[in-house]
Design goal:
The protein is of the alpha+beta class. It folds into two domains: 6-72; 83-235, Reverse transcriptase/Diguanylate cyclase domain (Alpha-Beta Plaits), CATH 3.30.70.270. The chain has helices at 4-21, 27-73, 83-100, 114-121, 123-140, 165-182, 212-228; strands spanning 104-111, 147-152, 155-161, 197-204, 234-235. β4 (197-204), α7 (212-228) and β5 (234-235) form a beta-alpha-beta unit. α1 (4-21) packs antiparallel against α2 (27-73) and α5 (123-140) crosses α6. The model has no long low-confidence stretch (mean pLDDT 86).
Length: 236
């Protein structure tokens, strides 16, 4: 495609010359007018094509930007949010709860005896299990502001904004029951013949003495108590 800006300058220059020579009413002027009109229409068509191409490129760039953002925020295996993005949202919700003096809850979830599951069925099946468990948990995390993320390995974390201990326990128990009901076979487990999870629950109303890290540690400690209590249960 010719450089339309150079062609535009040429068309304008030819038109200005015709006006200066005062030939627009003559036969020569009529021929020149037709040539100028032809060139103008060609330029207009090229301009429309460039605008259309620009719009398409803008749309593609927008879609690419959104896809890159999504990829940076999600776990590559399960498709749920990753730990980095969880931490970002958690800090925002924490300060919102702090300002509003409202409760905020964390569920720390771990698949019981997952190493033995991998040893028994292989890592590919282990990956399928992780994806399935994340899908089951996601169905229990129902409110728009609630958030599920893969925290690492076979561990998941759920953020429950504006939720008290009773509400957190209800979500935790629903998750445990839903996974058990799925009846995912686990022949390598020394405790249960199916895949189960343990859940640690922590809730607080943030104040000057608290921190995000402290609440996560509380949930992690509660998770260890759930493991010690026999697994397939939740503890506070």
């Amino acid at each position: 495609m010719d450089n339309i800006f150079i062609k535009e300058d040429e068309v304008i220059e030819n038109a200005e010359n015709a006006i200066r020579k005062n030939i627009m009413g003559s036969t020569e002027g009529e021929a020149l007018y037709k040539d100028l009109l032809y060139e103008y229409k060609k330029l207009l068509k090229q301009t429309k094509s460039l605008v259309k191409m620009s719009d398409m490129m803008q749309l593609q760039l927008h879609d690419l930007s959104r896809e890159l953002e999504r990829m940076s925020n999600t776990d590559g295996l399960t498709g749920i949010y990753n730990r980095r993005f969880f931490n970002e949202i958690f800090h925002k919700e924490w300060y919102s709860a702090f300002r509003g003096k409202i409760s905020i809850g964390i569920l720390m979830i771990d698949i019981d005896n997952f190493k033995k599951y991998n040893d028994t069925y292989g890592h590919l099946q282990g990956d399928r299990c992780l994806k399935l468990i994340s899908e089951i948990i996601q169905k229990s995390v129902k409110r728009p502001r609630d958030m599920l993320a893969r925290y690492g390995g076979e561990e998941f974390v759920v953020l429950l904004a504006e939720t008290d201990i009773k509400g957190c326990r209800a979500v935790a128990e629903e998750i445990i029951k839903s996974i058990e009901a799925k009846d995912i076979k686990h022949a390598g487990s020394p405790y249960f013949p199916r895949v189960t999870v343990s859940v640690g629950i922590a809730v607080t109303v943030p104040d000057d003495q608290d921190s995000c890290e402290k609440l996560l540690n509380m949930a992690d400690e509660a998770l260890y108590r759930a493991k010690a209590a026999g697994r397939n249960c939740c503890m506070e």
